[in-house]
Design a protein that fits this description.
Layout lengths: L6 H9 L6 H27 L4 H8 L3 H8 L7 H10 L15
Helix pairs in contact: 3-4, 3-5
Length: 103
C-alpha cells in the first residue's frame, strides 16, 4: 500500500527547500486567515438574520454561488461587493489601515 506524506511533512519539506520564500509564505498565510475570518463573519451574520444564501444574494445583488464561495473563504470580494453585503446583512462595512504595533 502506497502511503502519502502528511500535510505537516509536506509543509516541513517545502519550508526546508532552498527556494522557499518565508515572506511570501507569511503573506499568503495572512491572506488566507483574513479570508476565513471574513467568511465566518458573513455566515454568522446571515444565520443571525435567518437568511439563506439565496436570500442574502438577492438582497446584495449577487448570485448564490458567489455567497457560497465567500462563505467558504474562496474568491476575493471587491470593495463594492463588501459594501452591498454589509447593507444586506444590516451592518456597516469599515475598511482601514492600522499601524502595526511591531512596526
Amino acid at each position: 500500500m502506497n502511503e502519502h506524506p502528511s500535510m505537516d511533512d509536506l509543509r516541513r519539506e517545502r519550508m526546508s527547500s532552498p527556494s522557499f520564500d518565508a515572506v511570501e509564505y507569511e503573506a499568503g498565510r495572512a491572506e488566507a486567515i483574513l479570508a476565513i475570518e471574513l467568511a465566518e463573519a458573513i455566515r454568522e451574520r446571515r444565520l443571525e438574520l435567518g437568511l439563506t444564501q439565496t436570500q442574502l444574494a438577492g438582497r446584495a445583488g449577487l448570485r448564490q454561488p458567489e455567497v457560497s464561495r465567500l462563505e467558504s473563504g474562496g474568491g476575493t470580494p471587491t470593495i463594492g461587493m463588501l459594501e452591498r453585503l454589509a447593507f444586506a446583512l444590516e451592518v456597516r462595512f469599515i475598511a482601514r489601515f492600522e499601524k502595526d504595533d511591531a512596526a
